[in-house]
Design goal:
By secondary structure, the protein is α+β, with helices and mostly antiparallel strands. The chain has helices at 6-24, 82-99, 114-124, 137-141, 168-182, and strands at 30-32, 35-37, 51-53, 60-62, 71-77, 103-110, 129-133, 149-153, 159-164. Strand 3 and strand 4 (60-62) form a beta hairpin.
């Protein structure tokens, strides 16, 4: 009499390949706390394109126009978010530091009014681009998980990092440096 255990055999193969084969082959994303950095062996998810008018500016930003040109840091924040207020000056310094290296920083104020957003910008002396996403139209497409939430999109238009909560600004320099090194723009 022969015994068959196809389900058990498949389960063992799946467990072994995930536990041993996947990491050894570099076939998984790394998640450390609230940050997910998409591994190089897998294609990063494509960032949804959008067009938004910047607050108190005639400029409109179309993210599709940045592909091949700039790395995009999207910061989903709000005027009522205490960590967003605390980290605003550091985000401004980061934006200034990386602006000439090919990084665009855009803060999308979610579930916020134009009056409260303007007050936030004035109080925090914001030098990076700010736009409104009051209905989470953009945020939901990027996997918004609460404020603050930061997404990094490389020059290929792929989301290479999604950071939930505070401390994104201490992690961003390494992520941006790696993205800029990997995605050197074509020389013309």
């Amino acid at each position: 009499m022969r015994r068959r255990f196809p389900a058990a055999g498949l389960a063992l193969i799946a467990i072994f390949s995930c536990a041993v084969g996947g990491p050894a082959l570099g076939l998984r994303d790394s998640t450390v706390g609230p940050i997910t950095i998409v591994g190089r062996a897998w294609a990063a998810p494509a960032a949804p394109g959008f067009r938004v008018k910047l607050l108190d500016s005639p400029r409109t930003l179309d993210t599709r126009e940045l592909i091949g040109k700039r790395v995009l840091v999207l910061r989903f924040q709000a005027s009522y978010c205490k960590p967003c207020n605390r980290e605003s000056a550091a985000l401004d310094r980061l934006a200034l530091r990386y602006r000439n290296r090919g990084v665009e920083v855009l803060a999308l104020h979610v579930q916020d009014t134009i009056t409260d957003t303007r007050r936030f910008v004035k109080r925090n002396t914001v030098g990076y681009g700010v736009a409104l996403d009051p209905q989470l139209t953009i945020g939901n497409r990027y996997g918004f998980k609460g404020t603050p939430y930061t997404v990094v999109v490389d020059r290929k238009g792929e989301m290479i990092a999604q950071i939930t909560g505070e401390s994104a600004l201490t992690r961003l320099p390494k992520i941006l440096d790696e993205a800029l090194a990997a995605d050197s723009p074509p020389r013309s």
